[in-house]
Design brief:
Helix content of chain A: 40-55%
Structural class of chain A: alpha/beta
CATH architecture of chain A: Alpha-Beta Complex
Strand order of the largest sheet of chain A: 3-2-1-4-7-6-8-5
Strand order of the largest sheet of chain B: 2-1-3-4
Helix content of chain B: 55-70%
Number of strands of chain B: 4
Number of strands of chain A: 8
Order of helices and strands of chain B: HHHHEHEHEEH
Number of helices of chain A: 13
Shape of chain A: globular
Oligomer: heterodimer
Number of domains of chain A: 1
Strand content of chain A: 5-15%
Radius of gyration of chain A: 24 Å
Largest sheet of chain A: 8 strands, mixed
Number of helices of chain B: 7
CATH class of chain A: Alpha Beta
């Protein structure tokens, strides 16, 4: 047997194990449907919008925040300009100026020297007084009822300290956007399952909400290798603070549409995971931190390296095969020709154990996406599925490899 | 945190692996059964031709020469055997048994065709090809590629390939009758002395001048014509 294939079998075992685990969690506790029930109490909410060169999207982001279905006197919006060098400041000020007086008083703009998103968020927290604090990246837009859905979660369980939303891709059109639309839909499913396991690993920039006491208990955001939204989730777990997911609170986010920007974003995420993992290594395989320490963290790390191994293994075999065939043709002097297939013969189909395991993994992934689709109340196109299954396996190893390389060199990833 | 869920997920994942192994093994068994059925069918064809030959002698050469086992059937069987060999391993007992049976069928077909050719004044082109896949013949795979290409070009060419290391007395007898010295790959073309070593496409075609007498599968369109 090919010894190298053992690594692929191991990777598939890990992948299947994780998917099975999530499906068991799903069967144990189905996600609840959205209800028309309203909160009994409307706490004051400050929505922080850190911006750096977001002139194109900031107005739409603010528009979506002001359109939130929430009492106007209970919601304030703080735009924190982190030293933008484009027209973000002018665009935002102009947008605020043209608002009706009543709405204008709800929006404030703060300015600071460029210091990174985490510093902008911290400035926003310090300048706000509300009981609840939300964050919204300026490239994202919230559904009108998203805040209400979150408030209900806070109201139903007073031990909940932070809530992550259900993220969808904003108007996907290009191939890579369609690919990410499927990926995010799958994410809606597995994030909810992480919630079932009390093991959410990130509080994403687009519309996560916190009780103010989170910051008084564990401190403000940190640089955290440019992944402050991940680090704060790690820190909250380390201090036993509860994070849940509001799968009915939808937020739409714009995603990278080019390979270069996508890889840059994902390198930041993956490298952030590796470096935060190093900082919080004591949580790994530590039953004190529940499923987060026993399953989510170890799986995330193993999946990263297993994915890389499988990709390199496949690449090595592909290059060996193509190179070998080319060399054979050169040595034998056989002219290039296509193999002749007179008729279909099942005999020559690859029906190895590996093939069936890959099919099982893909089927479970597909099932997860379909469940996510049901939860997201969305419908993915065939083209989206095609782009996901055809492209993801090729592009993901690129950012994984670069993230590992960056982490090994202890080099900081960049934002854009 | 519930340990039962961790164990249950492990059991289910193990079950998926077990199922994948079982399905793959069942399909491999089915493949072996298919090869065996094909060998039995070819065996009956050869026996039928032999019997027909004995019954008719050289009285009806046209009927006889049309009936012997088609080279394409043996070629198809060889392809299937090599798939099973790759899947199950060359030392798999079932594969070794089927290869022996296949080699015997080849030898029988070869002998029968020689008799028919002699009695009916036919001029078939035979290539006996001896190879090894035990890791001691680096050029055998490429030599096999060249031969496969030529056979595809000239469907009338009768190629009989033999695993030199197969423990089969009839094969060893054939090898010794043809005075093979153990060098591989080895080609015996139309009963001429063995030719050893890897040959490129051009070299091998030059070694078989009789190819010109055979029809090609597709009209040649090369600029050199």
């Amino acid at each position: 047997m090919d010894i190298g294939a053992l690594g692929v079998y191991f990777s598939l075992f890990i992948g299947l194990y994780f998917e099975v685990f999530l499906l068991i969690s799903f069967l144990e506790r189905h996600p609840t449907q959205k209800t028309p029930q309203l909160p009994t109490h409307y706490p004051r909410v400050s929505m922080l919008v850190p911006v750096w060169n977001e002139e194109k999207t900031i107005a739409t982001t603010l528009e979506s925040l002001l359109a939130l279905d929430y009492p106007q006197d209970k919601l304030e919006v703080l735009v924190i300009d982190d030293g933008s060098t484009d027209k973000t400041r002018t665009v935002t000020e102009h947008y605020i100026a043209q608002l009706p007086q009543q709405e204008r008083s709800r929006v404030r703009m703060l300015h600071k020297e460029n210091g990174g998103k985490w510093t902008a968020l911290n400035m926003g927290i310090e300048h706000s007084t509300s009981e609840l604090i939300g964050c919204l990246d300026a490239d994202s837009f919230v559904a009108p009822d998203a805040l209400l859905e979150m408030i209900k979660k806070f109201e139903n369980d007073h031990s909940v300290m932070a809530i992550s939303p259900a993220m969808k891709v904003f108007r996907p059109k290009k191939l890579l956007e369609l690919m990410q639309a499927v990926e995010y839909t799958f994410g809606i499913f597995y994030k909810k399952m992480f919630d079932n396991l009390a093991a959410l690993n990130v509080l994403p920039g687009p519309f996560s909400m916190y009780r103010r006491e989170v910051f008084t208990k564990i401190g403000l955001f940190k640089h955290a290798h440019n992944t402050e939204d991940m680090e704060i989730a790690f820190r909250m777990h380390s201090r036993g603070l509860k994070i849940v997911n509001a799968h009915t609170a939808f937020v739409y986010t714009t995603v990278p549409s080019t390979l270069r920007t996508l890889i840059k974003q994902r390198v930041r995420w993956s490298q952030g995971f590796l470096q935060n993992s190093q900082d919080y290594s004591y949580m790994y395989f530590n039953p004190r931190f529940g499923n987060f320490g026993m399953l989510i963290l170890p799986f995330g790390l193993t999946a990263l390296f297993a994915g890389l191994y499988t990709a390199f293994y496949a690449l090595f075999h592909l290059v060996s095969y193509v190179g070998g065939r080319a060399l054979d043709m050169w040595v034998t002097r056989i002219p290039p020709h296509l193999p002749t297939f007179s008729h279909f013969d099942w005999f020559y189909l690859n029906t190895s154990m590996l093939t069936f395991l890959i099919v099982a993994t893909l089927l479970l992934t597909f099932l997860g996406i379909m469940l996510g689709q049901g939860m997201a109340q969305t419908r993915l196109s065939a083209k989206s599925f095609l782009s996901y299954f055809a492209l993801f396996g090729f592009v993901a190893p690129v950012w994984l490899a670069r993230a590992v390389w960056g982490a090994v060199r202890s080099k900081e990833s960049s934002w854009r | 945190m519930t340990w039962q869920k961790y164990i249950l997920a492990f059991v289910i994942t193990g079950a998926i692996f077990g199922t994948a192994f079982y399905i793959a093994a069942r399909i491999d068994s089915q493949r072996i059964a298919d090869i065996r059925a094909a060998e039995e069918s070819i065996s009956i064809d050869i026996l039928s031709s032999e019997t027909q030959f004995q019954l008719l002698g050289n009285l009806d050469c046209q009927t006889i020469s049309q009936n012997p086992v088609l080279q394409s059937e043996l070629g198809s069987l060889a392809g299937r055997l090599s798939v099973s060999e790759a899947n199950l391993g060359s030392d798999n007992a079932e594969v070794v048994y089927l290869k022996k049976q296949y080699s015997l069928l080849e030898i029988k077909d070869y002998l029968l065709m020689q008799q028919i050719a002699q009695k009916c004044n036919l001029k078939p082109v035979f290539v006996l090809y001896f190879y090894s896949n035990a890791g001691d013949c680096a050029d055998c795979a490429r030599a096999g590629d060249v031969l496969t290409y030529i056979r595809n070009q000239y469907p009338g060419l009768r190629v009989y390939s033999f695993d030199y290391n197969l423990d089969l007395s009839a094969l060893k007898t054939l090898a010794s009758l043809r005075t093979l010295n153990g060098g591989l790959p080895a080609f015996i073309i139309n009963n001429r002395p063995p030719v050893y070593g890897f040959k490129t496409l051009d070299e091998l075609e030059a070694l078989i001048p009789e190819l010109k007498t055979l029809a090609t599968s597709t009209p040649k369109t090369s600029a050199g014509e």
